[in-house]
Write a structure and sequence with these properties.
39% of the residues lie in helices and 18% in strands. The chain is an alpha/beta fold. Helix 1 (29-41) packs parallel to helix 3 (77-87) and helix 9 (244-254) crosses helix 10 (257-298).
């Protein structure tokens, strides 16, 4: 068993600091500095673990190798100064992720970070004792087939995620300020990445589309569901199968004079468009369904939308718990979703992200694009010995939601009463002697 240790671990991950142009901006810099300052002054026997993707090195496309560190150092002098000050008081361990895998590829990074009292561990994972237990730390991308790195430490590795971030995310950073609102840089906050096309459609409609065109389209899109039903009823009327609904609607609207005529005209146009779309949608839906079945059968594109995103980490944790009996906590990041799950008497803990989170809210009526509601869920995971076990709890770092500035009036109206629940997981304790973890 691991020897007794009263050290308390604070864990953060997925800061994604740095990148081309607009990606340089850190929305949470003040909160991060305040958090590091608090650790600098703590009376606890504390240690900080930054569990991967602290930096967005993949998103730098104009500089190579150690020059990226020079850019980080000159862009964020306050952050590095605070790391040095905090590191003088408590140990700071930095574990590479996929976005900053280069930290494992160049030994010079170890010396450069050491100047700021940060211990860069170039291995895929580290283990630390806590009480009579142990914690396994890894970023988590090795369990993700799109970001798995076979040749760890090779500076030339290029998994699929590398191409996405150098070609899409970094490009978004270069182009973001050309929009009517600087929104494109938030592409790295869209998870899973399969939602990016829908997110871009949403931002185009609510942000970039000509306002006159948008407000002209909204009535048609809102009335689409009604118009689709009317299109079917109109077809029944034309075939002399059932004319009552059409006659009743015409008679009802006729009572309101010009206003009723205008509504009837709007419904007629909507009904005609909806009828065409319904006719086209039927064969397209059948084709889409058949293609999806084929893809699922061959497993060509297994994504977060088609498979359980947490299952690979539970499986990896079982292997670690089996091979290292003292280890009862498997701590990872990568997926940006804070969570705690019990696996074989241990805990699988996700540390979330400090990036903005975008929560999809589909329209309740019509064909309006979904709204991606922004929020922050900044947190640090605190892992500490307690009694005969180990407690895992999330400490929330307060940051106001950016929705008033980043959502249009239409988006705010469509999400009224439907704002996301961003509560963090409850405190959980894992005890010894094969006892099951318990939430408190």
């Amino acid at each position: 068993m691991v020897g007794d240790d009263d050290r308390v671990y604070y864990v953060i991950s997925d800061l994604h600091i740095g990148g081309d142009e607009q990606l340089e901006e850190i929305d949470f810099l003040d909160e991060l500095l305040a958090f590091l300052q608090r650790l600098e002054r703590t009376d606890e026997n504390a240690a900080l673990v930054i569990n991967g993707d602290a930096f967005g090195l993949w998103e730098f496309t104009t500089v190579e190798g150690m020059a990226k560190f020079d850019v980080l150092e000159s862009t964020y002098p306050e952050l590095f100064a605070q790391l040095r000050a905090t590191g003088e008081q408590i140990p700071i361990t930095l574990v590479p992720g996929n976005h900053d895998h280069e930290l494992a590829a160049y030994d010079a990074y170890v010396d450069r970070f050491a100047e700021y009292n940060v211990d860069l561990v170039q291995s895929q994972s580290v283990t630390r004792p806590v009480g009579d237990h142990a914690i396994h730390f890894e970023h988590g991308h090795q369990q993700d087939p799109n970001n798995h790195i076979d040749n760890w430490g090779d500076p030339h590795v290029t998994p699929l995620g590398y191409y996405y971030n150098t070609l899409v995310t970094s490009r978004a950073g270069q182009l973001s300020n050309r929009g009517k609102y600087n929104w494109l840089k938030d592409v790295q906050a869209v998870t899973p990445t399969e939602r990016v096309p829908v997110w871009m459609l949403s931002k185009y409609f609510y942000r970039e589309m000509n306002p006159v065109l948008r407000y002209a389209l909204i009535p048609f899109l809102l009335l689409f569901n009604v118009s689709a039903v009317l299109a079917v009823l109109a077809g029944l009327d034309l075939l002399d199968i059932w004319s009552l609904p059409v006659d009743a609607t015409t008679a009802f609207l006729g009572q309101f004079g010009p206003i009723g005529t205008a509504v009837w005209f709007l419904l007629a146009i909507n009904t005609a468009v909806a009828g065409v779309l319904v006719l086209v949608a039927i064969p397209l839906s059948l084709l889409r369904r058949d293609i999806r079945k084929t893809i699922d059968r061959f497993g060509v594109f297994e994504t977060g939308l088609t498979v359980d995103a947490e299952a690979p980490y539970a499986a990896a944790a079982r292997t670690v718990f089996d091979e290292q009996p003292a280890t009862t906590i498997f701590c990872y990041g990568h997926t940006h979703r804070p969570s705690v799950q019990s696996v074989d008497g241990g805990l699988v803990v996700n540390t979330g992200t400090w990036l903005k989170r975008l929560h999809r809210r589909d329209g309740v009526i019509g064909l309006l694009p979904p709204v991606f509601y922004p929020s922050y869920q900044l947190c640090a995971v605190r892992i500490a010995p307690t009694g005969d076990g180990v407690a895992v709890e999330y400490e929330q770092i307060e940051k106001p939601t950016p929705s008033p500035e980043e959502l249009t009036l239409t988006e705010r109206l469509l999400t009224l009463g439907r704002t996301p629940d961003v509560e963090l997981p409850d405190r959980t304790v894992v005890a010894g002697d094969d006892a099951e973890p318990s939430a408190e």
